[in-house]
Write the structure tokens for this entry.
Amino acid sequence: MIINHPLLGPRDAAEFVYLGDASLINRPTSDSDNAAEKFYEYLYLRDNVAGEMRELWYHEQGDRSWLVVTRNTLTHEISNVELARDVARASGRDR
Amino acid sequence: MRYSALQVIKQGLTGNKGWTPAWREPEPKAEYDVIIIGAGGHGLATAYYLAKEHGITNVAVVEKGWLGSGNIGRNTTIIRSNYMLPGNEPFYELSMKLWEGLEQDFNYNAMISQRGILNLCHSDPQRDGFARRGNAMLMAGADAVLLDTDGVRKLCPDLDFDNARFPITGGLWQKRGGTVRHDAVAWGYARGADERGVDIIQNCEVTGMQISNGVCTGVETTRGKISAKKVAVCVAGSSSRVMSMAGMRLPIESHVLQAFVTEGLKPTIPGVVTFGAGHFYISQSDKGGLVFGGDIDGYNTYAQRGNLPTVEDVCEGGMAVMPNIGRARMLRMWGGVMDMSMDGTPFIDKTDIGGLYFNGGWCYGGFKATPASGWCYAHLLATGQPHETATQLRLDRFKRGRMIDEKGVGAQPNLH
């Protein structure tokens, strides 16, 4: 698989480390009600979709940026690549 | 028809005209006591033991494709019980004992060959770890022998013992481990279940679950609605997809594991050899082909094929430990989709939905577990209680902080 890095251009997926579902960006906070339940769901439960999935890839052997890659889990086709930083900021986070 | 040497001679002398199909192709009935979703190794084993051990024969096994078309037909055929943790090892040892009597039990030649499995170690701490594991195995009634370098050399003289990075300092040897003719396991269980009245319904995809007031009363399929008192999901690889029909999210990710086979060679690998440090394991089939594999590719996928960087990684591992296989030509490579659970350990459990049961999360260790998985799942379905060796294989263990993490890498399924 070739991941089209937004800053560095096309890179071999073997340069990256895979983390999983991009929803892992949205870590719950410990001061919320039922925080234990929310952390359990955050850490252990997955949608595990068959089809288009947004997922986190870390460019370990490159510029060490985190990317949000939109990839089809049935065909391995990659349709979109964003910097995870931009995705997090767009959702209202400061970094 | 009972298979025997006498039967082979009798049929041979009468033109082989007396053989009958090994199982029927029944139409689905409107209702069953138990519907098992998935006619793979585990599903068919469950049906077999439900009928044979518990006398529950009003059972349907529904299957999207043909029976045995999933991971029972795509694995590397290894059986072993060299686990360590208390929640795991007795279960896998039960499986090993069931393997040992399986062919007589279901009257089918599964070519079970206890040729042994050898885990290689490369340092003193790793050897200490193997000693601990071996002792845990002995305590659970399994067999284990800790070998020094000479012991390994006697078994496998052709390994690269003086590798600069991974010198071989010994190994953990389980003599009762080995290989099995994987497809024959599915066929044997299917035949045995069918003989006892279980309906195996192929080309019948489950498209929905009938759930009302928190109770599952049946399934919708491409061949109509089928009602059941109990619905038992057994579709590792597609667990999340099927359980999402019941509105459940699972502690599972789907990943692909690749496997490879070379052209047939003369006998060179005595049993199964694993080189964990280099992500490589190998055995030799009865036809002579070297069957080998390594780690999962490491990203979520439902495609039954992997990518080339992993192929390179596996072959490098092979060359590091076994340079003499370098000239062997690879014939085929394939991939199977794994339920990778959050601690590397499977599930055999009830769900919060009444009448709905779940078996899955087998990671890349499902094949060796086939008999015990069926045995324990059938026990759970028939009695409502988990089997004594499967009491910890629960769906809610993460919530309770009771994970069974053999490798100790945490909730990172692609690292198990």
Q: What stands out?
A: Residues 347 and 395 of chain B are 6 Å apart (CA to CA). The two ends of chain B are 44 Å apart (CA to CA).
